[in-house]
Amino acid sequence: MLCSEKPSAALAIFPMELYVGTFTRDLFGEEETTYFDDVEQFLSLQQQAVEALTEKHREKTAWVDVFNSYVAPWWQYREAEKGEASGVVINLKPNGRVEVKKRLMRHEVQEEVAEVTTETTEAPKEKPAISSGLIRYAALHKSMAVQAALLQNPRKAKEVMLASLLLPQGRVRIDAHPCVTAWDEAETKPKAFALVDSELSRLSRALGVEFDSRKRLSMDGDEIEVSVALYKAIQTLPDEDLDRFSMFLVVLSLGEAARVCLIRKKGSSTSWRTT
To answer: What are the structural domain ranges in the chain?
Structure first.
């Protein structure tokens, strides 16, 4: 809010060393979030820079029109066609922003009409009270605070983890191994499939959710409402089922390659077998 009326360094078209006043800077120190404290000095230097820019363009173009308006009367101009002696329009807005458009041709407009429309300006757009850099910085702080709070509350962390694993739009995504759906339509199923499917059914009933044919959470209805309902259901799970469900979802992603984890030592260090 302190900087809402101050021009940012990104607007300056003059060499920064000409400015002898102080700045107010955002924590990130970007040009868009560095502000001139001496607004009058900034506007004076900006005006001088516009005058110098005008003279520079006059040497190369047929004409130069300069405005001091929030909205220049662009309708009075058109793009020049090849071979036409074009000009340049420079608009120095009251907030210090400079617009330059080249290769333009003037439309034939009655002088009194041109004067009236030139003096008609729009209200300036409000400048954000808080810069995007500061918002980003605050968001990072809030996210880190959430992580710290979850680490101090393991039960809550597990609830959030399970919700993240179940929700399709979550940042954490676990894809079920193809073996999980390989026997959906088969009449004869492996014994291992029956065990996995039985556990999935039990945990689903405990949570009150349904899974589609790909063993993914079915999401019918408004995304936010479904997410809230899911998290409320997760909060009702006993600790054992909460741990079991998260573990189960990870297990569903594992396949034959994970068998190395099921190997145990027998006898000597070189003797191994699959359990």
So the answer is: 9-119, 153-274
